[in-house]
Write a structure and sequence with these properties.
alpha/beta; 2 domains; 3 helices
């Protein structure tokens, strides 16, 4: 009969092994998702850029489609996305709202102008000069995703700017009183003041595969150790 203490240890070990296996399968799922996303990006990049105004009523997955955008900048607050890293340097992504030409009765769309380096202090936001109205500017469609790990701290606009930890369009609506399209246009053309090096897939599929192998390896090692410790030991008599 198995005593209570070894039984508890066995249950804990089995739960730990099952958790490791679950994490391994999750990493494999993420690998397949990234592979499909990269294939989708490659296919969409071969297509002729569409007008951003035409994407408003388009159904399905509109992420990563190349577009051209023409419109005028609104007087809504500039949005600074905090803690954006480029080549190891901390900075901001700067967004502003644009009223699309040919869709004057539609909601404005947020346009990501690109990355700029941070100043000496966190509150030292880089100065941004809003360019002339956009004329056939090239871009790519992005759809903001919520990151539950990030805790938002912004409460309102200061000096016609908003400093956010992540882009939440619904929260932006509550802060500005303005509704926006559910997507963002990331400008892609080279600019002297903004860095536009977009990476829609940050972690490559091979990285997820490596993590999956690690988790499965840990599960196998834990299984072997548990089996050895739980096997009955022979006692020798003189």
């Amino acid at each position: 009969m198995i005593r209570r203490q070894p039984l508890i240890a066995l249950v804990i070990a089995v739960l730990a092994i099952l958790t490791m296996c679950r994490l391994g399968w999750w990493q494999l799922d993420r690998m397949h998702e990234k592979e499909q996303r990269l294939a989708s990006i490659a296919q969409k990049q071969t297509e002729t850029p569409q007008r951003a105004a035409d994407m408003i009523h388009r159904s399905g997955d509109i992420r990563d489609y190349p577009v051209t955008i023409t419109g005028r900048f609104t007087d809504l607050p500039l949005v600074y996305l905090d803690n954006r890293i480029h080549n190891g340097r901390v900075g901001f992504e700067v967004l502003t709202a644009v009223q699309l030409q040919g869709a004057s009765d539609a909601l404005p769309v947020l346009v990501n102008l690109g990355w700029m380096p941070a100043g000496v202090t966190r509150g030292d936001l880089p100065s941004v000069i809003i360019p002339e109205p956009l004329q056939q500017a090239g871009g790519v469609i992005a759809v903001p995703a919520d990151n539950p790990v990030i805790r938002e701290t912004t409460t309102g606009a200061i000096n016609n700017t908003l400093l956010l930890q992540q882009l939440d369009i619904q929260r932006l609506k509550s802060l500005t009183g303005q509704q926006f399209q559910p997507f963002v246009v990331q400008l892609t053309e080279a600019h002297p003041h903004f860095v536009r090096d977009w990476k829609p897939v940050v972690m490559p599929p091979k990285k997820h595969l490596a993590y999956a192998i690690q988790w499965f390896g840990l599960a196998i090692a834990a299984s072997i150790i548990t089996l050895i410790l739980m096997l009955p030991r022979r006692t020798s008599h003189d």
